[in-house]
Input
Amino acid sequence: MPPELGLFLRFQVQRHLSAALRRPGDIFNPLVFFLMVVTLFPLGLGPDPEVLADFAPGIVWVVALLSSLTVSSRLFQADYEDGTLEQLALAPHPLALAAMSEVLSHWLLSGVVLALASPVFAAMLNMPVQAIPTLMLSLVLGTLCLSLTGAIGAALTVGLRRGGVLLSLLTIPLTVPVLIFGVGAVREAALGYDPSGWLALLGALAAGGLVLAPLAAAAGLRISLEL
Amino acid sequence: MWTFVHKMGSPPWFYRFATIVIRWLLPTVLLALLAGSVWGLLYAPPDFRQGNSYRIIYIHVPAAVVALAGYYVMAIAGLVSLVWKIKMADTAMRAVAPVGAALTFVALVTGAIWGKPTWGAWWVWDARITSMLILFFLYLGVMALFEAYDDKAAAAKACAVLSLVGTVNIPIIYKSVDWWYSLHQPASIKFTGESAIDASMLYPLLLMIGAFYGLFALLVLLNMKAELLGTHRQSAWLRSELR
Amino acid sequence: MTPALRQGSLLTLADVSLERGARRLLQGVTLEVGSAELWQLVGSNGSGKTSLLRAIAGLARLGVRGAIGRSDSFLYQGHLPGLKPLLTCRENLRWHGSGRVYTEMQRIDEALAAVGLAGYEDSVVMQLSAGQQRRVGLARLWLSDAALWLLDEPFTAIDLKGTALLESRLQAHCSAGGSVVFTSHQPTAMDGLQVLDLNQYAA
Output
């Protein structure tokens, strides 16, 4: 085993982050997308604060799922197109570790940022204040699960010319538990109950996914490199 | 045992094997389907609450059970293909997907038809129906992924990975949908539990489930044979087989 | 080291055939590359040069038959440069699939100077010209400790001066005991160059 796995992982994450920070628009665009879609719901459902508060956990979570899917579809695109992926696949370091670094940096820049911004969306939808910490925590854990699932889909479709819609077909069914657990936690907290059970389930999904999803993504990437 | 597994991996041997199995399976399955339908639809007693409309379970339940099992068959074939690189496993995996999707679709449609007299609506977001719908999506995903790859060897590998991921996920999905349903369950909808089913209704159901497993195996074998006819049409063994 | 590799050689191909989809590209390719050898793969378009190189590197496994033995210490550089447009030259060269993560900048700066990019260490690659970007990719050859180099079309899109520079680097690698297998359309005149024509293996 190469002795420098930690260095490799840290370097890969650092590489992604510094590249992304030089083009900050890519970080803000998903947030703007999120804001716009959240705006569509009061326009579609009516402005009644009680109705909105009732639907708020579901709205925020469905939009989070969709925005995570749109971003993660491009997870390995750049590496595939510029040849970095070939080098990652040939490197003595495991490809799964490289995939994990990609997912983690993607999650830091999309999911965590979204979770940090989520109180704004909660306020717009009249969500009770006591639910906001749960909302943020559930989004931190849940978006990690979504990024990991998205990574598997992205790995399997990165070599295809028409990957975009296909990726959603592959990943949406797999994300159902994340949505249910996330909405469950936020609803529970909004009603004043203890959401820790749902959050624990989300945490378990994230932990399990962090172990298994990079392996599946690496297998997918090797197949995509055959094309 | 191992020589059998080894032989299964060879297309000519498998083709002959499938031909013999189909010859026996086809009449058996047709007979079982006929017997189960007649028994279930005509001789089993009507349900005391639902009357005769419950009889659709003789199609709905077997289709649902076999559709779920089919996903696991597909995933196991995928695993065999990834680990032992047996080409027939690719063929099997590819053959299972449309059959499983069709059975899932049958389960969904019969569920909807059953829902109309029982609940007064064609579609109700019941936990089992919702899980079935997601299973249907999982099948569609595998089929769409296979079609998207031009290189069919790579397509089979990709589908194997996807179906294995789906296999890990299915128990989580089913459980989460159950919890979701109990969280939102509206008071007016109650599912009559099958656990309370009487033996006179259960035996024809078990026969139908067995018949559907047979039907599944039959359709998969036919599908695999059709695939072999396509890919090996230039081979000498196939020509001599068809003569 | 793969079991198919003979003692003392860096690459062994024994009766290798390649299939792509249902089409057979190559059949019966046999090649033995020892140390300090320079091999050019030639062949018409679509003859499978790139596919063979990818199979040797281990990127392509489907449809590859026969035994491929390759030294574990190798560098593969395909058509694609593997450069991140938003990172600087230094940042880009800190890591490559053939090696470890470089922590000391001095070697990187020397490699950049060797390809004539001294002074561009902290320039973002996106802002360099296409030719300069090619050179950043080539600088990896000055950083590599790998014994076997597998290069796909290394001579495309570089000027005469760059070609001469690259040729001298390949020969220096060989004199140090390493070997190079590369594909190229153009005939190149390097000392000790051996040519493998893939057209003879066309199936």
The mean pLDDT of chain C is 85. Chain C touches chain B at residues 20-21, 62-63 (CB under 8 Å).
